[in-house]
Amino acid sequence: MNTPQLQWETQRAFLAVLRTGSLSGAARLLGIAQATARRRIEALEQSVGVSLFIRSPAGLLPTDTAKELISHVEAMAVAANAFNRAASADAALASGTVRLTSGKLLGVEVLPPMLRSLRRDHPQLAIELSVSNRLQALARQEADVAVRIRRPTEATVVARKVGDLQVGLYAAPELLAEQGTPDAVAQLHGYPLIGPDRNLLEIEFLRERGFDCSAANTFIRTDDHLAQLAALRAGLGIGVCSSQVAQRHGLVRVLPGQVDFNVDVWIAMHQDMRRVQRIALVFEALGGALADFLQPR
Questions:
Q1: Which domains, from first to last, does the chain contain?
Q2: CA end-to-end span of the chain
Q3: Mean pLDDT confidence for 207-218
Q4: Dihedrals φ, ψ of 296, to 5°?
Q5: How far apart (Å, rounded) are the C-alpha atoms in residues 206 and 169?
Q6: 91 near 276, Cβ under 8 Å?
């Protein structure tokens, strides 16, 4: 292996091919010509002395050697992105790039209007919004600010609880107009229910709180909370939703007082980022906006 010849641009191309499965996809992801992407992969393979991809009908498949390098190149990408964000502006100025991460439901349904207000007040800020249910590590600077529905446990993280999602059963008004409104949990077996699919922990969590959404009782099953919300709005059944989101979409509360629970919402950042003005600003602004949104109504 001739390691001195390794360069980040060739490794970026390698990571892009891993993520897209093709040279053309990698080229689009990086904004370069396909021929350039090919040259960078060939240069990397020449440097390490082995082939990194196998051509197949499904695209470019990583070899065993390539698979061993994945964690290393992903760590390099995290570090490079953190470097770019840190270098994007003076730490004392409210400008530059901030990477924000959250789960899908909050990232799609809740945060965008708050980000609009933030950008209006601070037009020099750029936001990278990573919407994923995978917890990105603040300690490794995979993100600058995180909004989570569970308390962060990292020792180097500053966290603040901003409120609770008040969760209960909801349905579209059209469904209830057609089938009537249940008066007791025992009557739910006569209605189409929406619940998780293979997330056994969530199924058990909901069962303990009075909503039996095991496979035998549900007609629409998905582990994606956004898909569950879409099914509720389409009138496909009765399912769980937070009151704050349900009110926005005109969903109707079902069995109030019989199936009710709260889910914590936290905002967090690495403790060293408190000295970076743009990150501290996003932390405080979103923390306040989330606290207002989560106020009991």
A1: 3-86 (1.10.10.10), 96-163+264-293 (3.40.190.10), 165-261 (3.40.190.10)
A2: 63
A3: 90
A4: -60, 135
A5: 11
A6: yes
